[in-house]
Design brief:
Pfam families: Multi_Drug_Res
Number of helices: 4
Number of domains: 1
Protein name: Guanidinium exporter
InterPro entries: EmrE-like, Small_drug/metabolite_transptr, Small_multidrug_res
Order of helices and strands: HHHH
GO molecular function: transmembrane transporter activity
Oligomer: single chain
Number of strands: 0
Family: Belongs to the drug/metabolite transporter (DMT) superfamily. Small multidrug resistance (SMR) (TC 2.A.7.1) family. Gdx/SugE subfamily.
Helix content: over 70%
Radius of gyration: 15 Å
Length: about 110
């Protein structure tokens, strides 16, 4: 279950990052509330996952899911640039996530 909690925590990290962007610096109520609720959920699930997963593995995968997810949402919904270097960077992050998972022994 730890891996499932970690995956959901990572997805919630993407949610709060996107909602924070949409909150315009916490000046719009609904996305501000979504940001705070998603942050609390993300941190809580990360903490639960860390009960049985190593710190380095859990934190790296959590931030990686958040980084790549935010990258994809930024392109898909915010019109952010798709450049070869940004795509290579995302591929490297995904490679790191896979390597961290495979090397965790869990």
């Amino acid at each position: 279950m730890a891996w499932f909690y970690l995956l959901v925590a990572g997805i919630l990290e993407v949610v709060w990052a996107y909602a924070m962007k949409k909150s315009a610096g916490f000046t719009i109520l609904t996305p501000s509330i979504v940001t705070i609720v998603a942050m609390i959920g993300s941190f809580a699930l990360l903490a639960i996952a860390m009960r049985s997963l190593p710190l380095g593995t859990a934190y790296t995968i959590w931030t990686g899911i958040g980084a790549v997810g935010a990258f994809v949402l930024g392109i898909a919904f915010l019109g952010e640039a798709v450049t070869p270097l940004r795509i290579i960077a995302a591929i490297l992050i995904i490679s790191g996530i896979i390597a961290m998972k495979l090397g965790s022994g869990h």
